[in-house]
Amino acid sequence: MGVDIADVEVVVQWRLTCSLDTLWQRLGRAARGPGREAVAILLIEPKYFDEERQAAASRADKRKEKRRETEAGKAVAVEQRKRKRAETQSASSGNPTEIPRTEGSQLEASGSEASAPAALSQYQQLRVLYRTEGGTGREHASTKKAKTRTVDGDGLSPELDNIINAATRPFKCYRVPIMAFYENDTVGGWCPTTVSACRGTAVVPAHPIFAFLAAIPSAERNSAPRASHIDPKKYPMDAQFYKLRATLHDFRRSEMLTKYGQPALESLGTGFIMGDETLSRIADCARARKLKTVEDLYRESKWHLSWKLGTRVLELVTEFYPPPQPSGHETMESNSLTARQAPNGENSTGIPPGSRQVALRRCGACGELGHTTELPPYQPAKAFQQAKELLMSFSLYLKR
């Protein structure tokens, strides 16, 4: 308010919290310079639209109807109890009581018909509506003893109501309520645009008047990669785990001291570098051997400094949880796959290289091939010892 800048191109009014005079003054701050065009954006609460009002009224009617049915049921029960009491008393006395029946009197309309008023224009009808439903009107708004303008149940004056819901009103134009409110129709035919030509075109985003604005980015965004679920009972919390946590704490403390200084470290702690939850998550993923690359670190921990300090954190993780060495079974599988690969890009089984192949199962504890946590790896020496003991027990049984 009070700012006179010639090149204002966009004016935004957040929520409908003012009168039409104040709103029009705020919107008039745009395009003050000659030959300029501007866009006025009015963000309105949903409760002011006719669709929302109808839905709210429908819900209120249902509640009233339910309340009316409940009260009617109670009233019927009371009347039935009164009737039973009266019948019991009349039966005991032997004289039935006659209830007098009242007849309603008919009222005859005696008023004379008023003379039909002269036909009013569309703008005059709106001004009559503004004066009857909106209080004293604009011509008395400047007086000191002006009454407060009455509004509807939602706190909205009739002129603003017609502007917001112009698309569902009979005139179907956003300019008509404003011209009627400021009595611009009495000035003369200064506006060459007819009502049908300006019908709601300014609110369409594809209108040429919005061409100078930047394109609205797409609301669709790629979802964040999902982190893995780590069962704490599956991975033991050994001494390496606690040493890694202590090392990560020393790391974030040294980074905080280097970047922000000792006063910030003493007053704010190490949360700017790495929070406690992030540290615990990195340690859990490390003992589960989920951290191999910086991408894995960001996906599992969502650490905001993964791309800057992630390489150093992975080095610390590797010191305590080194990657598993490929076993003989895994090397044999890789060699067999390489041997079966044909020179023309196809293997001996006829499966093209781009086709889907069955993934080999790995152990959840050590990450190696050939066994799982439920089925331990095959040990020939142990199996031979078990077979030998079985034969010896069987031979002793035969000797008996």
Automatic annotation (TrEMBL):
Gene3D superfamilies: P-loop containing nucleotide triphosphate hydrolases (3.40.50.300)
Low complexity composition-biased segments: 107-119
Residue ranges, compositional bias (Basic and acidic residues): 53-72
Start and end residues of each stretch annotated as Disordered: 53-119, 133-153, 324-356
Comp. bias regions, Polar residues: 333-350
Domain of life: Eukaryota
Name the UniProt record assigns to this protein: Helicase C-terminal domain-containing protein
Organism: Pycnoporus cinnabarinus (Cinnabar-red polypore)
